[in-house]
Fold:
Amino acid sequence: MVARVIPVETFDLVIFGGTGDLARRKILPSLFRRMRAGQMPKDARVIGTARGKMTKKAYQTLIREALEEFIKPENRTDEDVDAFVGQLDYVMLDAKGDDGWEDLGKKLREGETRAFYLSVGPSLFGVIAQQLSKRGLATPKSRIVVEKPLGHDLGSAQELNAQLSTCFTESQIYRIDHYLGKETVQNLMALRFANALFEPLWSAQHVDHVQITVAETIGVEGRGGYYDKSGAMRDMIQNHLMQLLCLTAMEPPARFEPNAVRDEKLKVIRALDPVPPSDTVRGQYRASIDDGSYLEHVDNQDSRTESFVAIKTQISNWRWAGTPFYLRTGKKLRARMSEIAIIFKDVPHSIFPEVEEKRGNALIIRLQPDEGITLRMTIKEPGPGGMRLKEVPLDMTFADALGPQVEVADAYERLIMDVIRGNQTLFMRGDEVEAAWEWTDAILAAWANSSGRPQPYDPGGSGPEDALALLHRDGRRWREIEA
Ligand code: NAD
Structure:
């Protein structure tokens, strides 16, 4: 089965920080894949900008090397790479000063869609937005793209939104959370709103609880300096897990269109109860055989920054009152795994009393490693000898179900094309980001005011003991962290 591709109109894409890690590893390889899929117009232009002096040819070579590093050989040909780098240009530019802006202006075409992708540190977001506006480069057909960190608390997020909105309207601002670009996350919406089967069950009446897990195996590695100022709460919960929670819990929007979807997500965030400290668990990983502990990677030896967090949260509305949502994320865990698990209530009365352990149906929406959706069902074990029950998964791993020809697109591919198309459905609105910070800030403030410390946990496991206890005390247990 060949995926349907709808070409986009021509565009000028300017990548600020065009020589950086994000540009080389994600943005440009994603555009290359879209070109291969036939979606990128031949006259579209991509202009990398950065502080370094570099010729256009040297920039093209840099990106050629990036494609060779990040795109598998079977997914590229020399002709395609030549064609792609032929669409690239470079402008040396100082975001804070005057250098380069005039050159950039000359390269942009009048009347075409312009996308300014800010692949630079967040301290430059406001500066670049103002420069674009001041120098007349922000035309009505312009879009500006930013991604995390979108502030480090409510105040800084408001400041950032204010800076962006003096130069661009909300409909021109694209705040990326790449989790929203994942195939399975959109499939969650298809599953909920294009099938009549699940929606009647999608409430506290039938759902016992929801678990959202984003587990990483890596530690902070070389990013200790940045990470120690952030922590799992700011780095993962406020954005990625919050977005997953919103899409899982939101009411059906009237239409699949940007503001209808974002209004519903915002209502979920606003309905979240304040979380008492007793419903939160923080952890910090210990040393393993091959790597130092969290504290060995950061300067502050008294750091109370969490590399793991687990939270029990409640949504106070008619649909979800009484159904807890458990969130957990952490570094140095057993496997790299991201999933949303909807655990349904048990049958009200079992007619099979010999079955010792009863586990309800579960719908598992897996984001990684293999994107797919699984429904856990109970069936009779085949064969004679009484009524033995067995759990089986009804599995829809996309690669298996749709055939190997359907390559699951990288989230950035879809999101960049959505920017060009002007579709904001999968991007966060400013008020959503602020509401998420408001909720997160309250938890962070409670931690800051307590004398407690993150609980140490061993690498390669499922986090601190207290995280297990958070569910045990409710008579529940976490799903295994496994690849
Ligand atoms: P990086 O340090 O690799 O690249 C930064 C780029 O910005 C370089 O091209 C540099 O030349 C340019 N730059 C810096 N100061 C400048 C100035 N004054 N004027 C013009 N250009 C300037 O960083 P990165 O990893 O590519 O990340 C960029 C941003 O994206 C950061 O805010 C990061 O937090 C965010 N981010 C990165 C990733 C990732 O996977 N790398 C993922 C999500 C978000």
Notes: The pocket of nicotinamide-adenine-dinucleotide is lined by residues 16-23, 50-52, 93-96, 119-122, 147-148 (CB under 6 Å). The CA atoms of residues 170 and 429 lie 8 Å apart.
